[in-house]
Design a protein that fits this description.
homodimer, Arc Repressor Mutant, subunit A, 10 helices, DNA-binding
Chain lengths: 199, 199
DNA sequence: CCCTTAAGAAACGCAACGTATCTTAAAGGT
DNA sequence: ACCTTTAAGATACGTTGCGTTTCTTAAGGG
């Protein structure tokens, strides 16, 4: 009971609401999340929330935005293949959990609310996957595993899109086997093909 | 007023309901589709629907399943690149429209109802993209555009997953430019890489 | 022709929506 | 220290759609 019984305002209150929304997301997920429950959890009332966000999607996206993405460290595993597997594994782990349900849920509403779609796209576009892939490829070139090669943005962005798709479609976690298969059957061949035909 | 005023039963009634659900999907989309509206449109009542399907997702999936997918004709455009662009374009056109909203909407519920997720996955897995890609690749090999190559299932499945992802994320239609970029920057390099490293 | 089955109509309680009203606490200026 | 503005919080509202229950009655098979 460290509660100040006093009445919160402005930023302080806003943080409390977003925290409550985040906690609620973790507890019941997006589909079952209600504004009333968030209000109750934050110790406030519905109108206070509706004064700030138009609806559930915007509230959730705001709560999500507050969670700072933990950086994906670029570990040198010694080989191109191992580096790729490690990177995609880290991306997959991050995509699992609640994220995919939130993304799927928000996407369902995004078709009716274009501005929500825009926020969601913005949020998902941030990941600098291109940089990570390029770093790994550069190391591979230095090692002599690969001829010099430039990876087009589309090719760099591809894995994260596929992993997100797979996570949402399968529901369950993506196994290391899946990722190894993807690396061996798709991404390594692609990199070799890019290296062969000069861009 | 061609209405038989009589009381429909069994299969006949079921078809009418599924037709109504499909029409409703086209009119208001998945998010706004209600069982009551479908019942009204079919000229029946809610319990009749609930006796057959547990909820909205199952009803919609059943209605969707009734729409037979028009076959994607394999047109020979004269070159590997043109064949791929044509194929991916046809897939993209098919994925647009209501489909992506339905997929997104159903996916949002799928996390709470694993059996729905399974039906959805089943539905999306049917497309024999692998065959089409292999057909195109074989023609390219015959033309001498490509060394003999076997395309792993994962590599064959990849475009349709990416196109679906892109359709849902962007909301709008996928342009021919997007597809050409994908073919030039990703898929052709991948095929060349697969051809280079024997599987 | 009867008897089983299921369609259809109506109403239910429930949950959450989004809004409106009103009181009262907080913040800030003078 | 007071007074004014702002907004928090409580409460209640009407609405919608849910999924279910009850009951009547039409259809179809034996």
């Amino acid at each position: 009971m460290t509660e100040t019984k006093s009445r919160r305002r402005g930023a302080e209150l806003e943080q409390a609401i977003l925290d409550a929304a985040w906690a609620e997301l973790n507890d019941v997920g997006y589909a079952a999340l209600t504004i009333e429950a968030v209000a109750a959890r934050a110790g406030t009332s519905k109108p206070v929330i509706y004064r700030r966000w138009p609806g559930r999607a915007e509230l959730v996206l705001a709560a999500w935005a507050r969670q700072r993405p933990k950086p994906v460290p670029a570990t040198d595993m010694g080989s191109l293949r191992a580096d790729l597997i490690a990177l995609f594994n880290r991306i997959a782990r991050r995509a699992e959990g609640m994220m995919s349900e939130v993304v799927a849920g928000v996407m369902g509403e995004a078709f009716r609310h274009p501005e929500v779609a825009e926020i969601l796209r913005e949020r998902l576009r941030t990941a600098p996957l291109g940089d990570w892939v390029n770093g790994i490829v550069e190391r591979a070139v230095e090692r002599g595993e690969l001829p010099p090669v430039t990876v087009p943005p589309r090719a760099a962005r591809m894995p994260i899109d596929l992993i997100r798709n797979e996570t949402m479609m399968s529901g369950g976690p993506i196994t290391e086997t899946d990722i190894a298969e993807f690396v061996d059957d798709v991404y390594l061949p692609l990199l070799r093909g890019l290296a062969a035909s000069p861009g």
